[in-house]
Amino acid sequence: MKTEATEPVDKSGAQRPGLLRTLEIDTRLLGMIGAFVILSLAFNLITDGRFLTPRNIFNLTIQTVSVAIMATGMVFVIVTRNIDLSVGSLLATCSAVMAMTQTQILPNMLGLGLDHPATAPIAIVVGILTGTLIGGFQGWLIGYLTIPAFIVTLGGLLVWRNVAWYMTKGQTIGPLDSNFMIFGGTNGTIGAGASWIIGALAVAAALYGLWAARRAKLAHGFAVKPLWAELVMAAIMSGAILGFVATLNAYEVPVRRLKRLFEARGETMPEGFTAAYGLPISVLVLIAVAVAMTLIARRTRFGRYVFATGGNPDAAELSGINTRWLTVKVFALMGALTAISAVVASARLTYHSNDIGTLDELRVIAAAVIGGTALSGGFGTIYGAILGALIMQSLQSGMAMVGVDAPLQNIVVGAVLVLAVLVDIIYRRKTGDGA
Amino acid sequence: MSTPLVEMRDISVSFGGVKAVDHVSVDLFPGEVVGLLGHNGAGKSTLIKVLSGAYQADAGEIFINGEQARITNPRDARGYNIETIYQTLALADNLDASSNLFLGRELVTPLGLIDESAMEAEARRIMARLNPNFQKFSSPVSALSGGQRQSVAIARAVYFNARILIMDEPTAALGPQETRMVADLIMQLKSEGIGIFLISHDIHDVMQLCDRASVMKNGKLVGTVAIGDVTDDDLLSMIILGKNPKAA
Ligand SMILES: Nc1ncnc2c1ncn2[C@@H]1O[C@H](COP(=O)(O)OP(=O)(O)O)[C@@H](O)[C@H]1O
Ligand SMILES: [Mg+2]
Predict the structure, then answer these.
(1) pTM for the whole thing?
(2) A60 CA to chain B: closest CA distance, Å?
(3) Domains (ranges, CATH) in chain A?
(4) Nearest Cα to A213, choosing from A201, A203, A222, A204?
């Protein structure tokens, strides 16, 4: 809650009708993109152009996916004034359950072997159920038994890491089902043509979104942006989408790998044949999660209640919102997203290992917080968290590429996290955008 | 007389050892404004929070239209068309006016998604009636003045066709002009047949707006009087001395 002394500031900023205001661009988003661009350009300069190659961008993207998916869920957790320290360990439990399902339980009980078409879907469903149930259970302890989230999930951090260990007897489980592994990144890409089609569909969806929003405003007689501003936004969004697709499509499958692929099919590779990886399936999963979570945050009652509860829990309760059940749902959702991340993470490794997801809780929380989620509750965006994950991963990969020593890398990442929160606090103070 | 809209019988609430409300009975008829008076800590807010579902009584019964009502949470109260304007404004600071207005009862599209523009249009419609100067529909309510925030809280109670309205010190944070706006609104709602419990410290307001007044002291009901039968001083002595002039 605010102190009475703070003078309310008009966030709409009526006195500065600048370009940004006309375009209705979120200045925080712009700041984050700016930071990301500067970071990328700096690394690119230091590495003599190796940082911004299609290959590195491709790798950066697939490395970000697992943390980014969980970060979208962490936004809801933190917005409702909670925290989840158990996601890295829960990821390990989900990964272990899915690995055991496909390598032991299904073959032994149902007689479905590895690479049977039903194996991967069943394993994934089992994994998501596991994550949802465990998350929901933690949410119940927090919401109904009123044990602080910090404690429940700190306990969870120990419990789920070791449940995974206990189940697998500490053994690495692999290789995994080949259909399962298409979610891992390099092992599952859709090629250049399909990527362009997806890009075109995304552009169409973005344009439709802009148009539908404008039409709804006009229908109710509200003010709309000038048409040119709308067109500029449309151009920026289309350019960003198609630019991303073009970049990933520019990363070609190495010739040796292509040769092997052809040989595996008993064919010989035509001379001069090239193929691009295109969009990884894991990135498509992240995009689907991002769209779904944004829709949930902005356009569903559940999402609205998440933000209301974070802003003022008493007001939410008095408005008839069942905040305890809401807590269960928020943590169950976090668990489901953690399970999806577990699919991506174990598929990328091609096996389940004991230490999968270690320290992910810190990366995920950092991504959400760098992305502008306020620990005091009530504020946060899905795109911010994903951008936060991307910034964290770029920092880490960039430093590794430059050859910064491992301890120094972690020192920098830790310092950046603290600094990002400080910048955020100053920004909020200036805009009066809550505290 | 007809059946009361609300009858709270023998309500008791304790917090630990403190008897915040001690065997209090009050009632309310349609189109009536009943003032609840008493010093700070007399138990007024606690009593009405039992009716609005925020607290549960340890003992006592509530009747709505003569039928026993079970109110165990704010949703139950809304089911009986009881709306409350709380003393500490129950608004989510981070959300805008229309989100707060519809909190817990959002308008949705046929697909079940929140219909933002319809909600804003409705919010503009009701605010035009309650507070025509209100324009800040896209700012979070943390950016609003006390009076503007209060009009959002009032709009929320009025919009959903309340039949029983509880106002806990609705003008405590307002300037004179906004106070007059609230007074006008109370008279208007009363004329529409809504029953209103008005908690106020301002004897003048109570004498002007209320039909009856119930006075509380230290959790106990001192008495209920018809405003026409008493003077300012009678009410003051009930509040301060805890003595009912009739009973004396
Ligand atoms: N949630 C609570 N927990 C503990 N004590 C409370 C609570 N709410 C009210 N009280 C106590 O109950 C008594 C009545 O308070 P209240 O109903 O707020 O009085 P009023 O609204 O008449 O000023 C006071 O002694 C107050 O301290
Ligand atoms: Mg009070």
Answers:
(1) 0.88
(2) 34
(3) 20-188+281-430 (1.10.3470), 192-279 (no CATH)
(4) A222
